[in-house]
Amino acid sequence: MWEMFRKMIGDKKEYKMMMERVEALPDDYQYVFKKIQGYMWNFSAGNGMDMLHMQYELIELFEASAAEGREVLEITGPDVASFADELVGSAKTYVDKYRQDLNESIMERLGKKVI
Question: What's the whole-model pTM score?
């Protein structure tokens, strides 16, 4: 139990440090990051650690792009939702879990009847 508690505190510290990096970005980058982040959480499965990994990658991309003096929409393009979908595409999502659960439950009951 204590180990789980320590991990939870560590995760919160890590998240806080990540968000400090976001706050150091130019305003437009911060705004777009936070909007993408909110969108991404809709697709998170489990404890969300897969999304955090993608968010770190996004921060690194945004930091490098901002340092080059590029505008955020040069990076994401005007269809930011499609950009975010590309990021989320490799994550295990609740939709994946629902699909897996559906298939497993049907195969448990009817799998022997499959021709």
Answer: 0.71
